[in-house]
Amino acid sequence: MIATWPCPGPHGQSEEYALALDRDRPRRLLIVPALFDEANRMRRMLVDMMRLLDQAGIDTFLPDLPGCNESLQDFTAQSLHGWRSAMLIAARHFRASEVLAVRGGALVYPNAMPGWVLEPAKGTSILRQMIRARVIAAREAGEHEDSADLLERGRTEGLELAGWRCGASLIAGLEHAMPEIEGQRLIAQSELGGGGGLWLRAEPAAAPAQSAALARIIAG
Fold first, then answer.
1. CA distance linking residue 161 with residue 135, whole number of Å
2. CA distance 33 to 36
3. Looking at the domain 2-121+179-212, which fold is it?
4. Are 211 and 115 in contact (CB under 8 A)?
5. Dihedrals φ, ψ of 175, to 5°?
């Protein structure tokens, strides 16, 4: 089921979308997705987990980050601060009782809430990987780009990275962002069984065993 929630953005308020399995039950889980392409690679696994949690009596909500997927907001205007504010608003709107932050979602989730963090990623690691991918793509095209020069330009002008037009505010935020874990339970990928992290795969994929293991951790 698709739900909407009101979210202020750089150019005014918009209606943002979330996948919701909501039966008005006491336990209500907000899922803060991974960032950039990792979110796409892991979405199927999280949706399958949501269905399992629905069977276990837990309502779940997976919102789009503003500027991503079906959002009407401009991606180039986004920042980590804006995403943090948006996820807090989503948590309040859906009356979430718990939160699950996934990978880079740990940089923008409401960390005052109880819950879980799956393999948190540092902002600098995410940014470095995306810049490295751009440098490699340029080299394969017979061009030369330098990582340090790209980062310097990104701080003031923004950068196109892996198909995402990142504004200067987002680049600057990622460069120094660290996950803030405030008592949430850390979940290691090894707890979800074999197959490795889905964020490492080239294409989105289902992982029924991982979905089931994650659902068991949260339901338990």
1. 10
2. 9
3. Rossmann fold (3.40.50)
4. no
5. -60, -30
